[in-house]
Design brief:
The structure holds two protein chains of two kinds.
Chain A (H helix, E strand, L loop, with lengths): L2 H15 L7 H14 L15 H4 L15 H4 L10 E6 L2 E2 L12 E4 H6 L4 H7 L8 H8 L5 E5 L9 E7 L6 E3 L2 E6 L4 E10 L5 E11 L4 E8 L5 E11 L4 E8 L4 E10 L5 E10 L4 E10 L5 E10 L4 E10 L7 E10 L5 E10 L5 E9 L3 H9 L4 H17 L5 H14 L9
Parallel strand pairs in A: 1-5, 4-7, 5-8, 6-9, 7-9, 8-10, 9-11, 10-12, 11-13, 12-14, 13-15, 14-16, 15-17, 16-18, 17-19, 18-20
Antiparallel strand pairs in A: 1-2, 3-4
Chain B lengths: L5 H10 L12 E3 L6 H10 L4 H16 L22 E3 L13 H10 L3 H6 L3 E7 L2 E5 L2 H7 L2 E4 H7 L1 H7 L10 H9 L4 E5 L8 E7 L10 E6 L4 E9 L7 E3 L2 E6 L4 E9 L11 E11 L4 E8 L4 E4 L2 E4 L5 E10 L4 E4 L2 E4 L5 E10 L4 E10 L7 E10 L5 E10 L5 E10 L2 H9 L4 H17 L4 H15 L5
Parallel strand pairs in B: 3-7, 6-8, 7-9, 8-11, 9-12, 10-13, 11-13, 12-14, 13-15, 13-16, 14-17, 15-18, 16-19, 17-20, 18-21, 19-21, 20-22, 21-23, 22-24
Antiparallel strand pairs in B: 1-2, 3-4, 5-6
Helix pairs in contact in B: 2-3, 3-9, 7-8, 10-11
Classes of the chains: A alpha/beta, B alpha/beta.
């Protein structure tokens, strides 16, 4: 049976497991209808021109994991940013793992989507924010239809959250193939500040497909700092749909570090509903083998005096493919917009390829919008310089590549996250240097 | 001095009527409206074409029937009714003239209004004209001079009769019949166009030029141009268009094929000024053109275009860099005003080693127009050391217009070097102030700035054309550019 039919037919069974009387019942029912008409995207759609989902959709994914799985902290410690104190929301095969987690209701809410959807005290927030900005395309609708679990984060006014929040999804491979649909909601009220780290990790080589939707709301002058670490096994694929709705003077930053996984598609959408907003999205992609990473970004400038910055670096080895499709839309009311977009790529292998499409749609005249995009190689004279000083070729190459991607790391505010990314990069480039330069 | 502001300019632009809008009343022989196999056969018969050509057209027609009109371009318009168009129209005064004196005087007057008096052109050194009114070539000058060098420059229908082996060998090799909807339509019904062949090692002594005009109400114009530069030759080809005012939308679906064999160079320049519709966006020409060039080893093709007219433009002059060390260039100025829509750009397909391409695109939008750049740079896995530089700049005048950029970049070779940059800006208050302060009035200042913005491209045009191009910028944008 095709995955689409399987999902549609298991929706009834899914509905039985959750509260049919909850207010989002109608939203779910509506969403499954949308998915039924839209289906999975194909290469014929402009936004999916360079990414085919066929290879990841062919598995017979089980939609509901049958049993609860226990894993010990010591086995998975390495996947945590464990050297800092943090709130933790951990899921194993889509189910909440309380023994690994550390949630809180002390002034702020860092807890579960399942309880937020069912408990009356969260009803107002859910009504105001849930599924309000997620797009109505096939994949997001599919997630909405099956939305039951995920992270729920609500930071009330004037709070500086002292510790970062880590969200980690483990999959154990107890199922032959597993499809996960985590749903996260982040609401940050006026003047508050929060840092979030998200990771998806498969523990075996059984195929996993994650179709995640995250909605982020930054109200007046709020600051959200979001880090996505994507270093999964090559059996796991991830479709990440993130929607950020910003109010005036807020600042939202999303860093995406893509090093692993079979196929990764990042749909990152920013909507600027207010003046003097700053949106930043940055990413480093270093992949090899037959990996495929697709960054699809949208910044919608709706009101005047806003800024957006995009900086994506990619290094592609072996038969890997990279895609960057960045779209900046400036509405005619959005005068004095300052939008900047850069996408730089290095191809290391003859079989690797990169498709990039930095797209501008501008309807206002008094704006500064620019984009730059390059594809090139490492500078041979720089290589020679390093080699002539006794640095072996591999290390010299790694140093240059690290330098190439370094300015994305500059804006990472949590030192431990920066260290971890540096280590992953060193590991990925096959060198044993710390880059503590 | 009264202050001339951007608002004044905008007002002026809105009310500016198409200066070249007039209609010559020449008796035309026009086919009944509609398109079917019989019409295709009739066109072919009318042009006394050989059997293979008729078959070739029919093949294209069959393919066309299966195709759907593309809608991916960033333009909105009422789709033309292909059954409501007459597919053939020729000026009635036949047979062909031997000298310019025999040409219908009314026709000559038309050219005079356009500022291209044939007599004058004849005298002007170095420009040969193959004038196309509607669809049949009525006058060809300087043919003898060219013939001495062995250069063939004639209408394509003549070429089909006189040099069938050349036409047969090359037609459809760069733009196949089934390439796209409009190319297929053109292949089926093309009425005339130019054919040019430069023999081995010959440097064409003059700029070759044709003027296209759409004249007959309700007749679409389907031009077919084929330029072949044999090994080591050079040619510079100019194409310029102006069309009379007409209220219903006219369709222009041309195909241009360039073939540059080893070490050859083709420079193809276009000034396009079809009727853009009036200030309310009524009328205007639909310009759906397929232009493509093929470069063999060490060959070079350079496209330069100034697009100021047409209600809807859909045009991507492309280079297929097949041979090693071949070079492709694209320089473009696209100006849109009122309700004009332009979706234009280029495709650079790098197949050979050490191939190079340069793209400079300048878009100027005013009024309620939409101006898009859409380009593709593709580096195949065998194209070692390919190099591309692209720059797309947009200038917006007023906040009712839009500028869009859709660059597609696909690299499959690690030695590729690709750079792409795009900027969007408006005419700065400080720039205007600077000029004012030095005694240059605002109108002049805007003209200067627009001219400076497009200079990189204007410079690439041959002398004769650069002057005309500046004139066209004037008409499209304001009274005193230049």
């Amino acid at each position: 049976m095709e995955l689409k039919e399987k999902l549609v037919s298991s929706f009834m069974a899914f509905e039985d497991t959750v509260d049919v009387h909850s207010p989002i019942h109608d939203i779910r029912t509506e969403a499954i209808k949308t998915f039924e008409t839209e289906g999975f995207p194909t290469k014929r759609q402009e936004a999916w021109k360079y990414t085919s989902l066929n290879s990841v959709l062919k598995h017979d994914y089980s939609v509901f994991p049958k049993q609860e799985n226990e894993i010990e902290f010591k086995d998975v410690k390495k996947y945590f940013i464990h050297d800092i104190d943090a709130y933790k929301i951990i899921f194993i095969d889509g189910k909440y793992a309380s023994h690994l987690s550390q949630t809180t209701h002390d002034g702020i809410d860092v807890c579960l989507m399942s309880s937020a959807l069912s408990k009356p005290k969260y009803r107002l927030i859910i009504e105001n924010y849930f599924n309000k900005i997620a797009s109505k395309d096939g994949l997001s609708s599919l997630n909405t239809a099956f939305s039951a679990e995920g992270a729920y984060i609500h930071i009330p006014k004037n709070k500086l959250v002292q510790k970062p929040i880590q969200i980690i999804h483990f999959s154990t491979g107890n199922e032959a193939a597993l499809m996960l649909q985590p749903r996260n909601l982040v609401v940050v009220d006026e003047n508050s500040h929060v840092q979030i780290i998200e990771r998806h990790q498969s523990l075996t080589d059984n195929p996993v497909l994650t179709n995640s939707v995250t909605e982020i709301f930054t109200n007046k002058r709020a600051i959200v700092d979001y880090y996505k670490i994507q270093n999964d096994r090559e059996s796991a694929s991830l479709i990440d749909n993130t929607f950020v709705n910003q109010k005036q003077e807020s600042l939202a930053k999303v860093h995406t570090f893509s090093f692993g996984g079979k196929l990764i598609r990042n749909n990152l959408n920013f909507y600027q509903n207010g003046e003097r907003i700053d949106s930043t999205m940055k990413g480093i992609t270093i992949i090899g083998n037959k990996q495929h990473v697709d960054h699809n970004t949208l910044v919608h400038h709706i009101e005047p005096n806003c800024e957006s910055h995009q900086d994506y670096k990619g290094i592609f080895d072996d038969s890997s493919t990279g895609v960057f499709n960045g779209k900046v839309v400036v509405e005619k009311e959005a005068q004095k917009t300052n939008a900047f977009q850069a996408n730089n790529n290095i191809l290391i292998s003859d079989k690797a390829s990169i498709n990039t499409k930095p797209q501008l749609e501008i309807f206002a005249d008094d704006v500064k919008c620019s984009h730059g995009c390059t594809i090139g190689q490492l500078d041979e004279s720089a290589m020679f310089y390093l080699r002539s000083r006794g640095i072996p070729e591999k290390e010299a190459r790694a140093l240059l590549m690290f330098a190439f991607s370094n300015n994305v790391l500059d804006s990472v505010k949590i030192p431990e996250v920066k260290n971890r990314i540096t280590k992953i990069i060193a590991n990925k480039l096959g060198v044993n240097i710390g880059f503590d330069l | 001095m009264s202050k001339y502001t951007e608002d004044d300019l905008r007002e002026e632009l809105k009310t500016k009527e198409y200066e070249y809008g007039f209609y010559t009343d020449i008796e035309s022989e026009t086919f009944p409206v509609g398109l079917n196999e019989d019409i295709v056969r009739a066109i072919s018969k009318k042009k006394e074409e050989p059997e293979w050509m008729t078959e070739w057209r029919l093949e294209a027609f069959k393919a066309w029937k299966e195709m759907a009109e593309p809608d991916w371009a960033n333009v909105k318009y009422k789709k033309p009714d292909f059954q409501a168009i007459s597919y053939y129209s020729a000026p009635n005064s036949k047979p062909k003239y031997d000298s310019i004196d025999e040409v219908d005087p009314e026709l000559l007057a038309t050219f005079e209004k356009l500022g291209i008096s044939l007599d004058e052109q004849k005298k002007l050194a170095g420009v040969a004209m193959d004038v196309v009114v509607d669809s049949v070539s009525v006058a060809t000058t300087f043919k003898k001079t060219l013939a001495e060098k062995g250069i063939i420059f004639m209408s394509i229908s003549e070429a089909i009769k006189e040099y069938p082996e050349l036409v047969k060998k090359y037609i459809g090799t760069v733009v196949p019949q089934k390439d796209n909807f409009y190319a297929a339509l053109n292949s089926a019904v093309f009425s005339d166009g130019s054919f040019c062949y430069i023999p081995k090692g010959v440097r064409c002594p003059m700029e070759l030029s044709t003027y296209f005009r759409i004249n007959q109400a309700g007749t679409g114009q389907f031009e077919r141009t084929l330029v072949i530069a044999d090994e080591g030759s050079y040619v510079s080809y100019l194409e310029g268009c102006t069309a009379p005012s007409r209220d219903e939308n006219q369709l222009h679906a041309a195909v241009v094929e360039l073939i540059a064999l080893d070490d050859a160079e083709i420079k193809y320049s276009t000034v396009q000024n079809w009727y853009p519709g009036n200030a309310e966006g009524k009328g205007g020409v639909y310009n759906f053109v397929t232009k493509r060039g093929l470069c063999e080893t060490n060959a070079k093709i350079s496209w330069t275009q100034v697009e100021t007219g047409s209600a809807v433009t859909w045009k991507y002059p492309s280079c297929v860099l097949k041979g090693d060390n071949s070079v492709g260039e694209f320089y473009s100025i696209a100006v849109t005003n009122n309700y004009q829509q332009a979706d234009t750009g280029t495709k650079m397909i790098h197949l050979g080693k050490n191939t190079k391409s340069t793209i400079i695109s300048k878009g100027i939008s005013a009024g309620k127009s939409q101006n898009s750049y859409r380009g593709l740079v593709q580096i195949s896995s065998r194209a070692d050391n390919a190099r591309n530089f692209s720059q797309c700049d947009s200038l917006l005048m007023g906040n009712e217009c839009g500028a869009h950029t859709f660059p597609y970049i696909e690299a499959k070779n690690k030695s590729a070097m690709i750079e792409h940059e795009a900027t969007t800006s408006k005419i700065g208050e400080d720039q205007i102030f600077y000029c004012n302060q030095r005694g240059i009035d605002t109108e002049k200042a805007i003209a200067l700035i627009v001219n400076g913005f497009s200079k990189e491209v204007l410079n690439k045009l041959p002398m004769e054309f650069a002057v005309e191009a500046q004139k066209l910028l004037e008409i499209s944008l304001e009274g005193s550019v230049g």
